[in-house]
Structures are given as C-alpha cells and as structure tokens.
Amino acid sequence: MWGMTPYPSTTPRTDHRYTFTVGFDLDLTLVDSRPGIRAAYAALSAATDTYIDLDLVISRLGPPLVEELRNWFPEERIAEANALYLAGYPEHGIAPSPAMPGALDSLAAIRELGGRSIVVTAKNPRNARLHLDHLGIDADELIGDLWAEDKALALRAHGASVYVGDHIGDVRGARKAGALAVAVPTGPYDVAELRAAGADVVLPGGLTDFPAWLRGHRAHRARPADRLAD
Fold it and tell me: Mean pLDDT across the stretch 118-136?
C-alpha cells in the first residue's frame, strides 16, 4: 500500500527492495484531469457568481491552483475561492477524468523491472490520491503541493533517477534534482518546446512510449561499460 504525504521528508529514503525509482507528474501526465478540472471550475464560478474562462484555464494547467485563481479573483477572495474549489473537487473533478493512455502500463513496466514509482504533483494531495484510487494507478508514494523546482525536494528524498512530466516546470524540477527529465507532449507544450526547455528525453507518443523506452534505458544502464562510466 503506497503512502501519501503533503510534502517530502528531507531525509533520503532508500528501499533496497527496489533497484530504481521513477517519479511522475499527475495532471496531463498520468491523468487527463481536464474534464474534471473544467467541471470543478464551472462549479466554483457558479458558487461565487464569478466569470471564469474555462477554456483558457484548461489550456494552461500545471502551476499551483492559487496562481490560476489570481486571474479571476481579487487577492482578498483567494483563500475563499481556494477552499471552495478544493472542497468541491471530489464531487466534480474525479469521475470525469480518465487515465492517460499508457499510464497503467508504465507503472506495470516499472514494477516488472524491479523499480518503484512515485507521484510528485502540485495538486492537493487528498484530491490527487482520489484520482489515483479511482483509476487504479498504484504508485508507491504520493507527494503533493510541490511545483517546478520544489519538486526536486521529493525527487531527491525518494532517490528518483527519472522524472516524467508534461510541463516545463516538471523539466526544471527534474534537472534541479539531478534526475533524467523525461517529457511527454500531452499537456500545454509540444515536443519542440519541451526539448528547448531542457528535457533529456521527449516521448512523442506520451506514456504509450514509456514502457519500451524504460526497458531500453534500463538495459543500457545494465551494460558493464556503462556502469563503470556512471
């Protein structure tokens, strides 16, 4: 059974049952949360009698919730809007949101090769866990409320050598952690933009390409000459 923490321990965790750890972003990497987020924002708009451009919101997912809310609410109403959105999200956001193609196969490939998977996301950890449970995405750890470079805290603490995400903020977090930045063009950025942002690997087919890539990556690292070069 995997754990859930709102922030990472600064003490590195080494679990000798596993030979490697892969981290994943959540929204638009493992889960297509666009339908659910749209529904949650529509409910927030109705509850607060506030106009929110739902198409625009969905086009720029990735950063923390409060950053988006500041585009629609004055500062003195941010805390209220944040609380309303988070409280309503389980009702509106979970059921409409499917797994991204290849998500379940990607975690299965990690486990098959002796690795472990963690989810490191800017999303509220309670709502992130609801997504994973609903879809049967059985990650070993979940760490929420971390964005961009701050994701490196969790990646380092859990010994992740690879981090997979759809946003240039995910690329920055991976690189700060010293992890291989693997990007998928299933969010707001295309292949060229992710490469320009510094991604080490871009998988054009999204997570459907990940199991084959991972098997090749692990086989390459297992070669004696490569181990000596590490």
Answer: 98
Among 57, 34, 40, 67, smallest CA distance to 186 is for: 34
Does this model's pTM top 0.85? My answer is yes
d(CA 230, CA 223): 11
Of 97, 114, 120, 117, nearest in space to 106 by CA:
117
Is the CB of residue 179 less than 8 Å from the CB of residue 155?
yes
Say if residue 204 is exposed, middle or buried (CB neighbours under 10 Å; 0-12, 13-18, 19+): exposed
Query: Which tokens sit at 66?
Result: 């409060």
Calpha distance 180→161 (Å, rounded): 6
Among 105, 99, 101, smallest CA distance to 212 is for 105
Cite the DSSP H helix spans in 26-138: 34-48, 54-59, 65-69, 78-92, 103-112, 125-135
| pLDDT for position 223 | 61
> In angstroms, how far is CA 89 from the centroid of its own chain?
17
pLDDT(5) > 70: no
